[in-house]
Amino acid sequence: MYFLERGFEWSKKQLSYEEATEEYKARIRQQGQAELHTPADVREPVSNNPSNNCSLYEHNDFYIDLRTPSDEKRGLITFFFLILGGMLAWAGMATIWFAVSDFMATDRGTSWEFYIFGLTFAPLTANIALYFFLKFSIKFFRLESLTARRIIVRFNRITRKVYLLRPKHLGGIRIMDWDKTEILIDKKMSELEGTGGFVILVWDKGDGVDLQGTPTDNIEVTFIGKPTRNASELLAFWEYIRRYMEDGPAAAPAPKKLICKFPWPWLSLKAAWGLDTSFFRQSELRVFVLLNLLLWPVILIHATGHWLSLLLCYEPRFPKVIEEAGR
């Protein structure tokens, strides 16, 4: 989880603004063409069939809240961290308990081997192993636990701002100008190129501010939406956002069902399984159903870790000044 955001924040620390700008320009070029066919600005339509892509947390007359692409990619680190950490912790406590129990026994001898190995060496070894395990693995554990449960991107049509709700280590809260948004998608991509795609929005230096009103001093990037199945879905999703901001809620109506934020365990199972119901309706794709059933033990491990990861995180909330913006 947060791999995209963490990678971008890491790259910003390694590059100056000028270097980051050059890298961004290089990324929007492909072999065989001068540059991507990106929309000219936020006012340019890209699809005739807008779709919310099942990516909305909230929809009202003031704003929409959207998810980011990597929400399902969490849990395995948490699961194995807790299993291995629990085993080492149990070993550390067990060695101490057995040593003390032996020492308190009336029929126990007090040879020097017992003091060295029973009371000192074994407990010390187990607890040193636990210490180094925690020291070197906690930073990976915090990629998906003991942090914000999710990143939320808010589009406020009244203030014409895009609000990025992120943990501090991923850039923190930013308030970006909608009208200065650059959209990193290719209007003429093939259907295959849109597989697993998501919307990427970019802002130049000074196109937004932090919560204290200080202008941004580098490029800002955010990634939006559930990964799509093809280019049509990807373009339709961006068109949904664009119409909401430019034309209003009537042009981009609320979905029948919003994403639930409460960490129900069956939602984690659904995220880990990730099986598209269209597979059942197309005989040539039903082999993927069989493959998923064969991988059921792995899916259960992933789902368990996913749920534990959610329980070990806090639900992020926008500050009051952003919640009341435009009302």
UniProtKB/TrEMBL annotation:
<feature type="transmembrane region" description="Helical">
    <location>
        <begin position="112"/>
        <end position="134"/>
    </location>
</feature>
<protein>
    <recommendedName>
        <fullName>DUF6708 domain-containing protein</fullName>
    </recommendedName>
</protein>
<dbReference type="Pfam" id="PF20455">
    <property type="entry name" value="DUF6708"/>
</dbReference>
<keyword id="KW-0472">Membrane</keyword>
<keyword id="KW-1133">Transmembrane helix</keyword>
<dbReference type="InterPro" id="IPR046554">
    <property type="entry name" value="DUF6708"/>
</dbReference>
<feature type="domain" description="DUF6708">
    <location>
        <begin position="132"/>
        <end position="325"/>
    </location>
</feature>
<feature type="transmembrane region" description="Helical">
    <location>
        <begin position="287"/>
        <end position="308"/>
    </location>
</feature>
<feature type="transmembrane region" description="Helical">
    <location>
        <begin position="76"/>
        <end position="100"/>
    </location>
</feature>
<keyword id="KW-0812">Transmembrane</keyword>
